[in-house]
Amino acid sequence: MMLLPSLSQAFEIQGHRGARGLLPENTLPSFSAAVEAGVHGIEVDLLMTKDGEIVIHHDFFLNPRLCQYRDGSPIQNIALIKESTLSELKELDCGCRLHPKFPKQHLIPGTPIPTLQELLNALSSESHPNAKMIRLNLEIKADPATPHYIPEPALIVKKIADIVCEKGFANRVYYSSFDLALLAEMRRRDIDCILGLILDEESLIAQGIDPLDWLPTVISIAHSMQATIISPHYDLMTKEVVERLHQAGLRAIPWTINQQSICQHLIEMGADGVITDYPIDMLAFVNRS
């Protein structure tokens, strides 16, 4: 079993969807940029297609704001990823449309939606030394309020775990999700895997947890499934939250932190790391601090 850094080790920088602030999200060029910058980890969003392939994509539906067909035509049928085949998704170009929140992105026309297998292959063949060390936060996408947006947990969990094992990455990943059923299924499948709970106010409410008094319940859930990482939205972070998570033997890695002032505040709180759209800049900031 891989042991991630202890509570006393270095502050961890994870690239959110790669280096989303600079390159199209969840694409191989975006992940490569984070690797070459020397960040500690990358956060990767996973969904399953109609034909059982694991693709790296954040949205449950095809997103016409970020992707178009390779011939330049717009997406007309806004289908669920789980109702699309891999070959259909490979017809999309997800590197040619500027994300409205990230005007400094460098577009790379012709960039397809990658599969998890393609990412692991790329890391295995990459010459940069960090490619051999970087850890992966594999977020299994799910929304507790809309469970029908993804296949049955057992199906997607088995496929992801099989790919990770086959490619020899079992000691370099942890699995995270908003969905407790997915995490519980992963624990049943792999007793030694590392699990992380993602949460925000909306997901807490959807799962019947009081957002004003969430910490005891989340700690209890984490212990019940032997999860070791909690990733709250940064709005939920306080010094007391960090202290209580540490007392419970849990690491606190919030999302998504793009302002250095907030990162500094989290460092002072004692957080264990951040997930950021600007991992290159944030790593440089932390190294200077």
From TrEMBL:
Xref: InterPro entries: GP_PDE_dom (IPR030395), PLC-like_Pdiesterase_TIM-brl (IPR017946)
Molecular functions per Gene Ontology: phosphoric diester hydrolase activity
TM stretches of this protein: none
Signal peptide residues on this chain, from the entry's feature table: none
UniProt GO BP: lipid metabolic process
Pfam families to which the protein is assigned, alphabetical: GDPD
GP-PDE domain boundaries: 11-286
Domain of life the protein comes from: Bacteria
Gene3D superfamilies: Phosphatidylinositol (PI) phosphodiesterase (3.20.20.190)
Designated name of the protein: GP-PDE domain-containing protein
Source organism (scientific name): Candidatus Protochlamydia naegleriophila
